[in-house]
């Protein structure tokens, strides 16, 4: 078990290294090919040659790409000094460099942004997990009835409708028309109530999108499970139907749901571009879009690493939980 | 087993099935899985129900257990007739009453012990659950003690350790033993074993059959063994009921069925059974053709399309459904062939080849 965990963690680090190398490769090679100079991006259009050279030297852009990558990695783990003679800046670990645009450190910036995604995911995932699974279960138990057909139609709509449609409708109706919810994001630490109110609409719309998938998955899985021999055995023992369904059938139904839940959550924490854009939230997704638009390479690097980290960790957590849920799974 | 088709209800046996019909409505038509089945079974006796796939033997057992209602994905089956268990009609009874009897007064062992146990719960937990479902007052500790006791009784070594194993950590034969322990945990008076050895290694099959026989002697319960394998019932059964196309075609004491079978289908089953105690034959004689459709059951005798002697009945086999009639004391068969003719064919043509 501990050996397994250690091996998986090594694996995680390795995966992140690969992601970092590939991203670094792409984003630091491309400017070379297109003839733009990263140093120019720092200093802006009206810089003179001397200033550009100074920046280039200070940021280490005059070194080879391998060396730059090494310095970048070193910065992540032990921090990094940007040194240009008299002008010296220290960037504490974990250092992801400085934004070209704002010239601020990337790490605190992203840490700030990811709070929005955590807030968004925290509420939405509870909603979609509870309502999605419950809907699917009820649907499966009432299969073939009008209720089943209705919920499955709604679920189909949920899967098909993009968030920028449902989100805008929700904003227009409940935000502007009825004025029930504010349409601004407030930090949890600033005002918990405002934080909650501001997130209700994004939570509900995002949960609707995901819940639809969960409803369909849990319905299909439960129907499969109900046909299993061990369900017949449970009934043959004389167990009450709620126990047969709630204990024996649900335990098996939740396993595949757990898997996609981990993936979805991991993906969501790495930025939800459409949702953030629709509700004007400034999370990692927003940062990703703006940094790409402005070729802000250090920020792009940071966002990619953040997202990759969440997805890889979610994978690991799911695998560990799997072993808890299913005794047949051996972690070796 | 009683002597007549419709005995007085006064001298009802422990288990008494009367004209049981189980029909499943499907998109293709009405599937008549069981279509008029009657039999009786006393405590301490074993009945073997024999037939091919689709003869209705498993549906019969599920109906007795009341599992036909919930076990299907399609529409609810239509069930008629009577199933009397110790003076109670299970067909007419409230489903919750039948549920309470399930696992307590009547229990069932299934074919494949791997899929029949929940993979996520330990063997012990599953036995404990069955015990506590019918002993609400029992503490977890008592129930666990009982589970260990049962595992020991069915011959599982180190039961106090194995009780915490998961089903996948057991071998096939051990799993079936555990299933039997689970079924017997509440001392049921009726035990139904649906193909209990089919999914097991040949070497283990005999052990499981021995176990069932020993336990029956010990607990004095009535046992129904459902199988397509005449060898299994030869080992265990007091009486045999042969089913074909949802109906009983022959029934009688096991020894009689093996020595002087009356129905051509039973002849076919016996002819297709490998035997080591006879001279080596060139080949086994299969029953020709395929099992009948249960939606469009052949007219008259359901077996007539496959029966080599159908022409000897003067056309009755295609037009008239044969009744289960007494051929000898306690021995019934549903066949249009005159008894004398049947005996002649059996002694002249069939017996020498068996």
Automatic annotation (TrEMBL), chain A:
One of its GO terms (biological process) is transmembrane transport. PROSITE patterns: ABC_TM1. One of its GO terms (cellular component) is plasma membrane. It is found in: Cell membrane. It comes from the Bacteria. Keywords: Cell membrane, Membrane, Transmembrane, Transmembrane helix, Transport. It is a multi-pass membrane protein. Residues 114-322 form the ABC transmembrane type-1 domain. The chain crosses the membrane at residues 12-30, 118-141, 153-174, 194-212, 254-274, 299-325. Its main location: membrane. Belongs to the binding-protein-dependent transport system permease family. PANTHER family: DIPEPTIDE TRANSPORT SYSTEM PERMEASE PROTEIN DPPB-RELATED. This is ABC transporter permease.
UniProtKB/TrEMBL annotation, chain B:
It is found in: Cell membrane. Signal peptide: none annotated. GO terms for cellular component: plasma membrane. It is a peripheral membrane protein. Residues 17-270 form the ABC transporter domain. Keywords: ATP-binding, Cell membrane, Membrane, Nucleotide-binding, Transport. PROSITE patterns: ABC_TRANSPORTER_1, ABC_TRANSPORTER_2. The keyword Cell membrane applies. One of its GO terms (biological process) is peptide transport. Belongs to the ABC transporter superfamily. This is Dipeptide/oligopeptide/nickel ABC transporter ATP-binding protein. It comes from Kitasatospora phosalacinea.
């Amino acid at each position: 078990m501990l050996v397994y965990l250690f091996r998986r963690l090594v694996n995680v680090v390795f995966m992140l290294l690969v992601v970092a190398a590939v991203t670094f490769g792409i984003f630091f090679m491309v400017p070379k090919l297109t003839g733009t100079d990263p140093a120019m991006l720092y200093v802006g259009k009206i810089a003179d040659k001397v200033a550009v050279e100074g920046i280039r030297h200070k940021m280490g852009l005059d070194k080879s790409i391998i060396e730059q990558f090494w310095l970048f990695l070193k910065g992540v783990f032990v921090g990094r000094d940007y040194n240009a003679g008299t002008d010296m800046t220290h960037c504490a670990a974990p250092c992801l460099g400085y934004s070209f645009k704002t010239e601020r450190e990337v790490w605190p910036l992203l840490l700030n942004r990811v709070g929005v995604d955590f807030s968004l995911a925290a509420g939405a995932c509870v909603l979609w997990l509870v309502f999605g699974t419950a809907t699917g279960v009820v649907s499966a138990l009432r299969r073939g009835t009008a209720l089943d057909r209705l919920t499955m139609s709604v679920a189909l709509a949920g899967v098909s409708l993009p968030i920028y449609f449902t989100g805008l409708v929700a904003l227009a109706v409940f935000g502007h028309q009825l004025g029930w919810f504010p349409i601004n994001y407030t930090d949890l630490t600033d005002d918990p109530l405002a934080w909650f109110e501001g997130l209700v609409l994004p939570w509900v719309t995002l949960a609707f999108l995901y819940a639809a998938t969960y409803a369909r998955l849990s319905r299909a899985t439960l129907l499969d499970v109900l046909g299993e021999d061990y369900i017949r055995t449970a009934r043959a023992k004389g167990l009450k139907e709620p126990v047969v369904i709630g204990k024996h059938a649900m335990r098996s139904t939740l396993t595949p749901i757990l898997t996609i839940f981990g993936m979805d959550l991991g993906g969501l924490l790495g930025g939800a571009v459409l949702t953030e854009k629709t509700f004007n939230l400034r999370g990692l997704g927003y940062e990703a879009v703006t940094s790409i638009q402005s070729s802000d390479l250090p920020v792009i690097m940071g966002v990619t690493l953040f997202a990759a980290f969440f997805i890889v960790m979610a994978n690991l957590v799911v695998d560990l939980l799997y072993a808890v849920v299913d005794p047949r799974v051996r972690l070796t | 087993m009683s002597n007549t088709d419709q005995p007085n209800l006064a001298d009802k046996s422990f288990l008494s099935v009367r004209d049981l019909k189980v029909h499943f409505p499907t998109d293709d038509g009405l599937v008549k899985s069981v279509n008029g089945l009657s039999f009786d079974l006393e405590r301490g006796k074993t009945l073997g129900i024999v037939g091919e796939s689709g003869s209705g033997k498993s549906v019969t057992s599920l109906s007795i257990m009341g599992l036909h209602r919930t076990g299907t994905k399609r529409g609810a089956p239509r069930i008629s007739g009577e199933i009397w268990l110790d003076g109670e009609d299970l067909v007419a009874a409230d489903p919750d009453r039948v549920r309470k009897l399930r696992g307590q007064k009547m229990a069932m062992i299934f074919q494949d012990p791997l899929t029949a146990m929940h993979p996520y719960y330990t063997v012990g937990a599953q036995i404990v659950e069955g015990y506590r479902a019918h002993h609400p007052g029992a503490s977890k500790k008592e129930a666990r003690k009982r589970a260990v006791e049962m595992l020991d009784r069915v011959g599982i070594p180190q039961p106090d350790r194995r009780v915490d194993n998961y089903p996948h950590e057991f071998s096939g034969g051990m799993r079936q033993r555990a299933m039997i322990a689970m079924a017997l945990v509440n001392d049921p008076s009726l035990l139904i074993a649906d193909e209990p050895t089919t999914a097991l290694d040949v070497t283990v099959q005999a052990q499981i059959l021995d176990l069932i026989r020993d336990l029956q002697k010990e607990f004095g319960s009535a046992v129904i063994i459902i199988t397509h394998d005449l060898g299994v019932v030869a080992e265990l059964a007091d009486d045999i009921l042969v089913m074909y196309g949802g109906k009983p075609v022959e029934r009688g004491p096991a020894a009689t069925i093996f020595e002087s079978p009356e129905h051509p289908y039973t002849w076919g089953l016996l002819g297709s059974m490998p035997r080591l105690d006879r001279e080596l034959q060139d080949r086994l004689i299969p029953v020709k053709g395929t099992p009948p459709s249960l939606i469009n059951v052949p007219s008259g005798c359901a077996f007539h399309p496959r029966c080599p002697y159908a022409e000897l009945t003067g056309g009755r086999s295609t037009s008239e459904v044969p009744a289960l009639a007494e051929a000898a004391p306690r021995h019934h068969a549903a066949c249009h062939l005159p008894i004398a003719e049947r005996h002649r064919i059996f002694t002249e043509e069939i017996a020498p080849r068996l």
